[in-house]
Amino acid sequence: MSLKGKRMAFLIGPAFQDEEGTEPKKYLVSKGAEVVYVGPQKTVYRGKYGRAKVRVDKTFGEVMPSEFDAVVIPGGSAPEHLRVEEAAVNFVRGFMKLDRPLAAICHGPQMLISADSLKGRTITCYQGIRDDVKLAGANYVDEPVVVDRNLITSRKPSDIPMFNEAIYAALKPKD
Amino acid sequence: MSLKGKRMAFLIGPAFQDEEGTEPKKYLVSKGAEVVYVGPQKTVYRGKYGRAKVRVDKTFGEVMPSEFDAVVIPGGSAPEHLRVEEAAVNFVRGFMKLDRPLAAICHGPQMLISADSLKGRTITCYQGIRDDVKLAGANYVDEPVVVDRNLITSRKPSDIPMFNEAIYAALKPKD
Question: Is A2 inside a domain boundary?
């Protein structure tokens, strides 16, 4: 089943985790979705390992949460840059109100902490930030992918295949 | 005035911030202090930018908090590795009970979050983790160096000179 007609935002910034910033896009585009890279500036960001580059399609000032059927937040150092940008945090907070699929991997949940979106939610993340998500009110579990209502979370690059499938499952037309 | 006879632990791990892991050591050794690199394994760790290498002198299993007059926690990605090591977190928690100078820069305060040592304390840190230290109960301020009783904190590599001076001031013999 195709994701044709589904429009997704990938939130991107400096030093994103290379594979997390690009592999889910390839997968989702191959399923028919449209993927838009949204970032703080209209520029090209490099992955933290120099294995990938991403061009920002739209800045946070140019988009509204309601334009997107789903949001993906890759990890690396990008979330620590995005979470100090008020427009980026407001975008995530606004998107959470829509109750549409939001997928975050590795350090991606740092954005959810800053958008005050984790209270009472069950999630996973990179283990190095597990204490932070707990303090933000989340129930942390150590699993490759965790789905709690609209939130889809994974821990690290090797979880990407299961992360991709969970995003697809959340978006595909229901039988 | 010399720091002769003062013994300091630098908590080190993979991908430490290169200058934060090495410049304060050079300064403190030049003042007469003894600096011991304490890490999770007896190995050589590289800085995240490849500009520095550090050999671990002692593992956390080989030291006691009371052996040290002060502790320094450099930033980079090392604190995210150390904070998931129970022995490292216990070391910090134990050292905090001694009320001796503990200095953390950049991502260093992530260790203090995991050691539950920030409630009611005024600190600074890398801005990308400011929301995490607030959720851990700290009063976050954006200053080059902040001293609150035994805690000395700074934000980033360019704060190192002021960070060094604050550590020296906390350790030097009183007039």
Answer: no
Interface of B with A (CB under 8 A): 77, 80-81, 83-84, 110, 113-114, 126-132, 135-136
Our answer to whether residue B125 is catalytic in this structure is no
Domain extent, residue B18, equals 7-171
Q: Which of A77, A113, A126 sits opposite B131 (nearest CB)?
A: A113
* Nearest-Cα residue of chain A relative to residue B78: A128
Radius of gyration of chain B (CA): 14
Task: Please list, in sequence order, all residues whose beta carbon lies within 8 angstroms of the beta carbon of residue B59, skipping any fewer than 6 positions away.
Answer: B38, B39, B40, B41, B42, B87
Any domain includes B33: yes
**B133/B143 Cα distance (integer angstroms):** 15
Full-model pTM: 0.96
Q: Is residue A99, in this structure, part of any structural domain at all?
A: yes
Number of domains in chain A: 1
pLDDT in tens, A116-133: 999 999 999 999 999 999
Distance from CA of B85 to the nearest CA of A (A): 10
Is B1 a member of any domain? no
The ipTM assigned to this model is 0.95
| A152-165: pLDDT as tens digits | 999 999 999 999 99
**B48 chain-A contacts, CB cut-off 8 A:** none
- Which of A120, A65, A118, A129 lies closest to A92, judged by CA? A65
- Residue A15 is part of a domain; what is its CATH number? 3.40.50.880
- Which residues from B are below 8 Å from A127, CB to CB? 84
